[in-house]
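Lesson 9: reading folded outputs for more than one chain in a single document. The general rule is that every protein is listed as its sequence immediately followed by its structure tokens, and records are never interleaved. Here is the first one.
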Amino acid sequence: GLLNGAVLALLFPVTDTQTQPFEVEMYWIQHGLMLMLPIFLASQGEPFTPEPVKQVHIAVLSYAIFFLYHIFILQPVAIFTGINLNCILCPAPSDPFAGPNYIVHACWSQAVVIFAVTRLYIFVLNISNKTIHNHNKYQ
């Protein structure tokens, strides 16, 4: 449900502030592994099975957690410290919605991205589970 951050980090990377050795490489490796981990876990079976495609409970719960965390926890801490935590105070240079209303655009676009990523992962996990179970059946 909350893989939207890894997807967006790969689509709109912000690596210009990473100056330490191998920091940029670790950025790409970590975000890539974040997207691969659910496939590995789903291959293990219960309790890591995807929800049915027609259910949207996980997507709605994920968006609610994402929204509440960013608005009620992350934004006050960012304002208090003056640190742009997770681009909550000002948009990232690669943000396609950069501008005076970028937070409004972030709210609706995250709903779309979270829903799309959860549906895509359910589709991928169902296919990978069928492939793994068919492979194991013939061994």
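And here is the second record, again sequence then tokens.
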Amino acid sequence: GINAEYGSAEEEGEVLVLGGQGLAGSATLSALLEAKLSVTVLNDNKNYYDYHELFQGKVESLACLRAAGLSGCFELQNYLAGAPKIRAVVDFTSSSKSLMEEALKLLGPLSPDVYMFVSAAAVYDVAVPLPAPIEEVEVLERPESVLLRETYNDRNIFGNNMLGAEEALRESGLPFVILRCADIVGPRDTTYRWWQYQVWSEHFDIINTGFVVPDSLRNMRFSLTYGGDVAQVILSALQKGVTNRVYNVAMEKPFTLPHYLLEMCKTFNNGENCYADFTEAQETYNLYPSNHQGVLSIERAKEELGFTPPPWDTVLAETVEFYGEARLKFTKERNTVLRKLSDNVVPFLSVGILNEVMTKPDLSQTLDTDGPTGPSGPSSGKPLLRSEL
């Protein structure tokens, strides 16, 4: 339920964040610090984008590798020995039942006021289907049929793992808040999905390969979640003292994959040139969505937490601008994006041209090329992306 206002920012107790280096995590750290809260982070302390620049010296850091197991993490053991007063755990990293159980075993005895878990809308893919827009169900029921359950789990392994983590948290008896997020977009994405689509859209003339869209996703509506909104909901739930509630977090606007890609192409005045390769194949290189049950309802978060997602146009402009600047600012991440595109999308003969354009200090001097296979666009006879939702 919802309690009265939790109290001032100076209220005793700190926030322990598991993860925090990705786009929702870094936005959350910024929001917690802005609210003058005491923050400790537990992660591998790798520097993604400007993570160290933003947070070093501002948060207490416990360097632990989750993959190696928390029980063997020396810095965490030292921290636990001090029996800290934990106001909240915010967990971005327990992405399976076993990881959640490991975290709860070590952190449960500290009796946090609330354990916040950032889960995923993919959990809806492995539960008994709900009508869209999907409203929060506190306890998601898995299918009774073992065969159907296994089919659902195989279809979305990520969703199965995340629901397992939710189930473990619920069974622990700790006060919890679970956020079910669609695919998260915005600056500092460590999955590099948005940035790949942005490069593909901006340099469609060089890559000259249609966006791969499986027929099953051609008209499938889905939600996207802005990283800053995860931070907004976490802070609001914390300040209001909410416990034992589940919230969907997403933008108001629904998407289809062709519609999202067209919006991206239009940003670079490529709306008339970009095209899709629609295919019956299931195993294809498409990066959104990771959940397939439909659009999320966010009415509960709006009513109970005062959640107000920014308009899509704002998110689009801000995110495109960030990755545009990141091209020269964050070369390690840029090279990861180029490698992913080269491995999966870019024709061999275009790889060198794309790399040269992406590493050029001044894009106004872009190479004069239509790509090795000639100009794309309406004249190519390929199916254009449509804007209908």
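What the second record shows: The first strand starts at residue 14 and ends at 18.
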